[in-house]
Amino acid sequence: MSAILSVDDLNDFINPGIACIKPVETLPKQQPLDNGGDPYEVTTEEKVQAGQPPPPAQISLTDCLACSGCVTSAEAVLVSLQSHSEVLDTLDKYEELPLAVSHGGMSGLSNGVNGSAAEQKVFVASVSPQTRASLAATYNVSERKAGNMISQLLSGPYGLRAGGKHGSGFAWVIDTNVMREVALVAAANEAQQALDTPAGELKKPVLTSACPGWICYAEKTHPHILAHLSKLKSPQALTGTLVKSVLAKKLGIPPEQVWHMAVMPCFDKKLEASRRELTSHTWHGQDGDAVRDVDCVITARELLMLAESRNISFPCLPRTPLPKQCAPPFPDPAINNFLFSRRRPQKRPRDEANTAIGTSGGYLHHILQTQQTRYPGSSLRITRGRNADVSEYAVVSPDDGRELFKAARYYGFRNIQNLVRRLKPAKASRMPGAAAARRPGGARKPGGGSGGVGEGEYAYVEVMACPGGCTNGGGQIKVGDVGTLRQGLGSGVEKGGVGQEVLPVQREWLGRVDEAYWSGEGSDEDGDLDMEGEADAGLHTEGGVAADVVDGVDRRKVKEMLDYWAAMTEVELEKLVCTTYRAVESDVGKSKSEGSEIEKVSALAVAAGGGW
């Protein structure tokens, strides 16, 4: 297990739904015979009670959650294999594949793939805005400067390239906000499609699927929820698919020669990277071994351990953008400009950001804004739930106050449990006439019946496992580590913040992280990195029609990029941006007398006079 992942990071728990199924026996410990002891003496209950009490039963997290829980023993191994140590080992094992810049300003291989080049890799990193916010609050810098420091560590001359066996570093450091815009546009289209086709494959309400902790919980405990889950990949997964598919096509190398690392706020993102649905087999064919779209995920705290392992002082790194010689252009001009020549949205006040958008990507906010563009003059009504992590939103008609679109936000597992219980299908009654008397959609639907938005049904729900959103991820820097980090006395996170007080100091700290998260919106300090080429190279607006901009996101340009991506890689767009889910069943805790399906069939065959 990662050295900084501990029980102290778990601040939200799920009450057990069933009794513990692990058999625990506490037999009295066999005592050695003394000189006067009789080896044939019978031990009575009185003697046992008079002796030392038996040790308490020991049940580990793996034992408790192996029965279709949140973390299985296999998943614990997957998490432990992704750490800063794996990053350093990979950089030392493989040389960096040399890239040459052509006359058109685009990168390519300097000598092709031959000989030793097969033992080389192209290293690419993607960084989430929540990670930058955590580091920005820690070192009292803006979110933009924190991003520059990360780029200097991963790609700059004073970072990882200054040491190691081969002096390898990351060719590109990508902001996942870019692919987040792709996810927002696709999510709005998906929500509208669910409204237009009520009998379609995706059921209402559509539930966000970007949080891997929530997905693991749904797959293992509530399979009836899977039909409601959004089919879209998360920004992390979209970035991995884009990087590997484009580089493999443009550089003429297999996907396994592209090594992609993501820096995320949550340990559960390591589990997402290990999903078999997020590999090259979904878009590159079934030949050969499946290559993960994201090879390794580390958190903000592990990023500091990465720097410390190379004796690099993270706060002393330059806070300016990378020089051009350290940031080669992406091999494809259109993708290059989409990834790096971006103008950030306008800065918003923190109050508006917290209430309407949140710090988990803004899926719900963008969908609500898109719906308001469909109904000019409509207003947004917000109703707070039983706590700060539950809110209800409604797009209201300007004429008669009718609810045109209704959605909600559920953060934290305690609130998620209430949501999934209300979405559970009602059991069919065997009483005559009960089916006709039951209201369509059942009484468990959140917000009321399912006859339409006029009756208050949710069309979309943003679901995240962490209370407060993604800036409160388990991999973020804790308030107890800040003093040590600012003094430059090491990473200060080896023990995972053991003994730290969560409330109220941690809550105040999370407010500062949220402030840093929104400081990046609209900040123009240092300017954007000026990549070579025109800003709109390869992507053009049709016939001079005005761009379809919703809350700072150019939906038309995103759609053009998606179409271009699919055409360039010759892969269906659905395979590039969508994923699937599966119900996870476990035999742990089942009675041995029940047997498997094969055993049941075999028993029936024997009883009928046959057999295998």
Percent of residues in helices: 25-40%
Mean pLDDT score: 76
Largest sheet: 5 strands, parallel
State Rg. Answer: 27 Å
Number of strands: 14
Query: What is the overall number of helices?
Result: 21
Give the overall form: globular
Structural class call reads alpha/beta
The proportion of residues in beta strands is: 5-15%
Can you put this structure into words, describing what you see?
- Helix content is 35%, strand content 10%.
- The protein is of the alpha/beta class and 612 residues long.
- The strands form four sheets. Strands 1, 4, 5, 7 and 8 form a five-stranded parallel β-sheet that branches.
- The longest helix is centred in the first third of the chain and has 20 residues, at 177-196.
- It is globular and about 75 Å long.
- The two termini are 44 Å apart.
- Mean pLDDT is 76; it is low at 5-27, 57-70, 111-115, 438-456, 494-502, 526-538 and 540-545.
Write a compact overview of the structure shown.
With 612 residues, this protein is α/β, with parallel strands linked by helices. Helix content is 35%, strand content 10%.
